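Lecture notes, continued. The same structure-token format from the folding unit now serves as the input rather than the output. Read the line below as a description of shape only.
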């Protein structure tokens, strides 16, 4: 089967199940997750090593991936890096309970969301629905196809983002975040507004994942945190894409 491109998702018929690839060496857990999700319209396949998971992504099309950090052979972080080299499929990472470092590393590499390994099936279902819905909504957005602000230009139809004409290598969530900020250029958005728009679900008030994604997006834009040309932070308020593209200090 032809590999789905990095910058888009094909549309599916309404009756087609949502395809999930679970990459985890716990065979029993994979089976239990598959049994739980099937009645909700998900079709779960499983691979039990990182190398097998990467090969599967290269050969088959999936709507989302559930990826465990701890894997035999190459670990989940390296698997994610290799996935991001060929696909923007939404990736939900499973991390050790309370291991903030794993979550931050995963998000910086390109994970769309995370769950502790001792997750509840209801939360897994909710988060899978959120990441797949976000990808589907992005694919069929009714917004104008093109947005520009200064030297940054995005096309929602192709899901391309360019800076000074050069293509930016963004994850699916980073693209949605940039789209959200550019559409509201010159206006401050708080974290709740941003998360509500790009994630489609409520986050815990202590969830700092949005800050990690902002940091990654800034790095890819070559933005200076202390004197940003693009994304300005207003402490205790939120973020703003600088409409005029001029450097401004933090508030």
């Amino acid at each position: 089967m032809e590999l789905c491109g990095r910058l888009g998702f094909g549309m599916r018929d309404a009756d087609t199940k949502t395809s999930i690839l679970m990459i985890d060496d716990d065979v029993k857990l994979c089976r239990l997750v598959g049994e739980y999700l099937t009645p909700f319209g998900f079709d779960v396949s499983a691979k039990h090593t990182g190398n097998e998971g990467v090969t599967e992504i290269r050969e088959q099309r999936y709507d989302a991936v559930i990826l465990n950090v701890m894997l035999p052979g190459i670990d989940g972080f390296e698997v994610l890096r290799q996935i991001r080299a060929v696909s923007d499929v939404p990736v939900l990472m499973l991390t050790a309970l309370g291991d903030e470092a794993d979550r931050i590393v995963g998000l910086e590499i390109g994970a769309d969301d995370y769950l502790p390994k001792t997750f509840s099936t209801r939360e897994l279902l909710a988060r899978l629905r959120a990441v797949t819905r976000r990808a589907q909504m992005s694919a069929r957005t009714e917004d104008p196809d093109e947005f520009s602000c200064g030297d940054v230009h995005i096309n929602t139809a192709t899901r391309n983002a360019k800076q000074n004409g050069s293509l930016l290598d963004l994850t699916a969530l980073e693209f949605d975040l940039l789209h959200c900020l550019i559409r509201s250029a010159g206006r401050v958005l708080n974290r709740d507004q941003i998360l509500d728009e790009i994630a489609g679900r409520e986050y815990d008030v202590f969830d700092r994942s949005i800050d990690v994604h902002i940091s990654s997006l800034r790095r890819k834009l070559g933005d200076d945190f202390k004197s940003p040309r693009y994304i300005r932070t207003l402490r205790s308020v939120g973020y703003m894409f600088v409409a005029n593209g001029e450097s401004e200090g933090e508030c």
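Point for the exam: The chain has a mean pLDDT of 80.
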